[in-house]
Specification:
Elements (H helix, E strand, L loop, with lengths): L2 H14 L16 E4 L2 E5 L12 H14 L7 H5 L2 H14 L6 E6 L2 H12 L4 E6 L4 H9 L3 E5 L4 H10 L4 E7 L11 H10 L2 E6 L14 H5 L6 E6 L9 E6 H10 L1 H4 L6 H15 L1 H27 L6 E2 L6 E7 L1 H13 L2 E2 L2 E2 L9 E6 L6 H21 L1
Parallel strand pairs: 2-12, 4-5, 4-6, 6-7, 7-8
Antiparallel strand pairs: 1-2, 3-9, 8-9, 10-11, 11-14, 13-14
Helix pairs in contact: 2-12, 4-12, 5-6, 13-15
Length: 404
């Protein structure tokens, strides 16, 4: 067998399991209605939770940043890539999280994936035991694999089980690592209880707030604001490519931790800094998140979540033979669990025929047998949009029942 034959056999196996993925070309920017392959679709799959990616003020700020700073940063932050725009962003974030993290300081990264790798690999040395949530994002899983620390997984949201593991640990340093909002289930980590364990067992608590930043809390500060948490043990990772509408990420933590990351995080030291034009535009994004527009869109998200969830519960009740179910989601991520890979892809195809795009999510992103539609809401969706989705799902469910 040639090398290409080996890869083609693996690709064929993916196809046989309905696990083959493909790129879809969008012809317009992300928005509730997007042209994909020449056809306008009603989208329920973006992480642009506040609709800021399409906000004209943000586009103008990005253009203004390019006019002022040019296109690229030219080098890593520690060489010449760190500008006043980068510093203004991290200074703003440090002020935002000062009520939650004593002596807060922030440091920027190009992506959330890089930020998670930085924190876990820099802090997860040979003296550390890393306690990783079962449903953590792939970036945290990969970071744990790369860290020198011993890695112990704990079951999803199992505070009692984690307590037992922490009590048995003899590690000099303990690092609890968790998503704040789980990206495929849409539910919360029990952060207050996890912080209590961190205090009890002298551990750090790393919180990946990719899907909470901008969305949760009265002013959009995310999960720490939502739960009202304060501790120097908190290490917050936030993503700026979702609700903030742009790109990049940050870590907010006690100043000593951030200083250590600056010295030890290899993907900060050896990566080119993000474009300063993006950093310039992020200041406008923060103002929008913090202002009346952000508040209005968060309120709309809450209303849409309630409308969608009520409709999905009724849909499942009307079609029990399909075996569909929901998670305990209380966020803009509202998954509809279908089960089989082929079944979820058939459902996604039926919705697309009806003019909606809600991609199916399959293993290894989720566990085998839990393939799902990951329905995500945007603050610029309308109640009529949600009604359209629910009506289309009803038609698809009825068709599947007739075919069964």
């Amino acid at each position: 067998m040639s090398l290409l034959d080996h890869l083609n056999a693996k690709l064929a196996a993916l196809s046989a399991q309905s696990l083959r993925r493909s790129l879809r070309r969008a012809d317009t920017g992300t928005a509730p209605r997007q042209t994909v392959g020449g056809r306008e679709l009603l989208m329920f799959c973006s992480n642009d939770y506040l609709g800021l990616a399409a906000e004209p003020a943000l586009a103008e700020a990005l253009a203004e940043g390019a006019r002022r700073w040019g296109a690229g940063s030219g080098a890593s932050p520690l060489v010449s890539g760190h500008t006043a725009a980068h510093e203004a962003v991290t200074d703003t974030l440090a002020r935002w999280y000062a009520p939650h993290i004593p002596q807060a300081r922030a440091i920027g990264f190009c992506t959330g994936y890089m930020a998670n790798l930085a924190v876990v690999t820099a802090l997860g040395d040979e003296h550390t035991e890393l306690f990783s949530e079962q449903l953590n994002h792939a970036s945290l899983i990969d970071a744990a694999r790369l860290a020198k620390a011993r890695v112990t997984r704990y079951a999803h949201a199992d505070v009692a089980g984690l307590r037992t593991l922490l009590a048995a640990s003899t590690a000099k340093v303990k690092l609890i690592v968790t998503d704040a909002v789980f990206s495929m289930d849409g539910d919360f980590a029990p952060l207050p209880a996890l912080l209590g364990l961190a205090e009890e067992f002298d551990a750090w608590l790393v919180v990946d707030d990719a899907h909470g930043f901008g969305v949760l809390g009265a002013t959009g500060r995310g999960s720490l604001e939502h739960f009202g948490l304060t501790s120097e043990r908190l290490i917050l990772v936030g993503t700026l490519g979702k609700a903030a509408g742009l790109s990049g990420a940050f870590v907010a933590a006690h100043a000593t931790i951030v200083e250590y990351l600056l010295q030890a995080a290899r993907n900060f030291i050896f990566s080119t800094a993000s474009p300063p034009a993006v950093e310039h535009a992020l200041l406008t994004s923060f103002a929008l998140i913090d202002g009346p527009l952000g508040a209005a869109r968060r309120a709309n998200l809450v209303a849409l979540q309630a409308q969608l969830r009520e409709g999905l519960v009724a849909l499942i009740d009307r079609h029990p033979r399909l075996g569909w179910s929901l998670t305990d989601a209380a966020t803009p991520i509202q998954p509809l669990i279908v089960g089989g890979n082929a079944e979820v892809m058939a459902l996604a195809a039926a919705l697309e025929t009806a003019g909606l795009r809600v991609p199916g999510i399959r293993p290894p992103t989720v566990a085998a047998g839990t393939a799902r539609l990951r329905i995500t809401l945007c603050g610029t969706h309308t109640a009529a949009d949600v009604d359209t989705l629910l009506t289309s799902l009803e038609h698809a469910a009825a068709a599947q029942e007739r075919a069964a």
